[in-house]
Amino acid sequence: MPLKPAPILISDSVYHILSKFSKSRTLPARQVERAKIFILCADGLNNLQISEKVSIGQDSVSKWRTRFLNSLPLLQEIEEKNPAVLEDKITSLLSDYARPGQPPTYTDEQIIKILEIACRTPEEYGYETSHWSLNQLVDVVIKEGIAESISAKTISRFLKYGENPPASRPLLAPFLRKNGQPGNIRAKSE
Questions:
Q1: Could you tell me the sign of the dihedral formed by the alpha carbons of 104, 105, 110, 112, in that order?
Q2: pLDDT band at residue 117, thresholds of 50, 70 and 90?
Q3: Are both 22 and 89 inside the same structural domain?
Q4: Which entry of 64, 86, 108, 178 is 20 to 30 Å from 56 by CA?
């Protein structure tokens, strides 16, 4: 016989928001799945029943049920004091916690300075070549004091994304807009 789940009593407004999120086609799939878990918890289903309905493991259901139970007092307080932010709080509840990660080694400003150097000719820095080599760029970056140390591979990655940076980290676009330059670097050098 399955264990009886802890009773979860939620208000109509919280249930309505969760119901809306569970049917959303624009929210990330994980958040929709978690909203479904919360609704099924409020409907009184146990973890095994929920895991079968949502097609995820019982451990995940248990984790999210516990998180939901721990957040209920805060949701009730927000609903009483400031109901306008209730939906935002539920959205953050459905999201993953921020994960620690390696902090960036180089700042955006350092990367932009490296790209500025790469856009200039090597003759401006005393080299008798017409095109940069990665090792020359490494030497100049260290001599200019932009970074204490940097690898040629790192500079290569910065140059690779200089023309078309990933959307998660658009390095050149804000810099170029701020300086009133066009966004197409290649057009300038050709």
A1: negative
A2: very high
A3: yes
A4: 86
